[in-house]
Amino acid sequence: MIIDSHQHFWNYNPVRDVWIDKSMEVIKKDFLPKDLKPILIQNGVDGCVAIQADQSEEETKFLLACAEKNSFIKGVVGWVDLTSKDVDKRLAYYASNSKFKGVRHVAQAEKDDYLTRNDVQNGISKLAKYNLTYDILIFPQQLPAALVLVEKFPEQKFILDHIAKPNISEPMNDKWKVNIKALSKFENVSCKLSGMVTETKDFNFVDEDFEPYMNHIFSSFGTNRILFGSDWPVCLLATDYKKVITLINNYLDIYSAKIKAKVLGVNAIKIYNL
Fold first, then answer.
1. Model pTM greater than 0.85?
2. Are 184 and 191 within 8 A, CB to CB?
3. Model confidence over 74-111: pLDDT tens digits?
4. Residue-wise pLDDT tens digits, 227-237
5. Residue 228: CA atoms inside 13 Å, Cβ hemisphere, count?
6. Which residue of 81, 125, 130, 143 is most buried, as measured by CB atoms within 10 A?
7. Is 247 helix (H, G, I), strand (E, B) or coil?
8. Residue 122 burial (CB < 10 Å; 0-12/13-18/19+)?
9. DSSP state for residue 156 in the 8-state scheme
């Protein structure tokens, strides 16, 4: 099976979705399961994991409702206020739904030490009890905080989103390289090959731009802890779904069919317990 481990749905709301600015006109509209389903079929993708884009339980419920009505949505990574005093109760509530697989917070929008805060870590400490993952969405300068976090909770499954969003259009930053290598040493951390096409200057790229970055991710994480993700519909800012999956497929041609299957689906099924 091919599983897209990272995509979003939303009913566009200009007040709520202020992160979608003037340069992002192409995604200033609704993106729903009925829009994604034919795209997955066209590209031979069997299922997906819907990831939160808004910091609200309303969205978590919306994504779970989408999953209930659409069998191709294999899991949901939602949002729960991990700093709340009743976080355990909220996690128990959502974990009772078999499609609820993990939690994410848009940590890239927080201060660089966000992941080391005691209240945040208290919430993250509750996830393993419910077999829930934590998606780490950060910029490169926040990688040191992520290192502190993943070392503190060796039993917690973490997934790094978008390879920590390095600037693809520039030569690889040495700090990013070192921190990615350090993060990969922790066996409880996996990494998504996702979100790369939109980390390019003016959303322009040639296929070769991604190769050194993917080389470093594979040499660091190996082939058992890497997941394919499209980041649809955000990817549409730079290119279409077909191009995103083709980039990954072409790169994976250097590997065996077994390894290709791992990156394109087997790993996501295992890591997200789909």
1. yes
2. yes
3. 999 999 999 999 999 999 999 999 999 999 999 999 99
4. 999 999 999 99
5. 26
6. 143
7. helix
8. middle
9. S
Q: In a 10 Å sphere around its CB, with 0-12 CB exposed, 13-18 middle and 19+ buried, how is residue 210 labelled?
A: buried
Q: Which residue type sits at 206?
A: V
List the chain residues with pLDDT less than 50.
Answer: none
The set of residues, in sequence order, having a beta carbon less than 8 Å from that of 169 and lying 6+ positions away, is 199, 200, 201, 204, 205, 209
CA 42, distance to chain mean position in Å, is: 22
Q: What is the CATH number of domain 3-271?
A: 3.20.20.140
Q: Could you tell me the two tokens for 73?
A: 């949505």
Position 129: which residue type? K
97 CB-near residues (< 8 Å, 6+ apart): 64
Domain boundaries, given as residue ranges, for the chain: 3-271
**For position 183, what pLDDT does the model report?**
98
Q: How far apart are CA 269 and CA 274, in angstroms?
A: 5
Structure tokens at 55: 């910091």
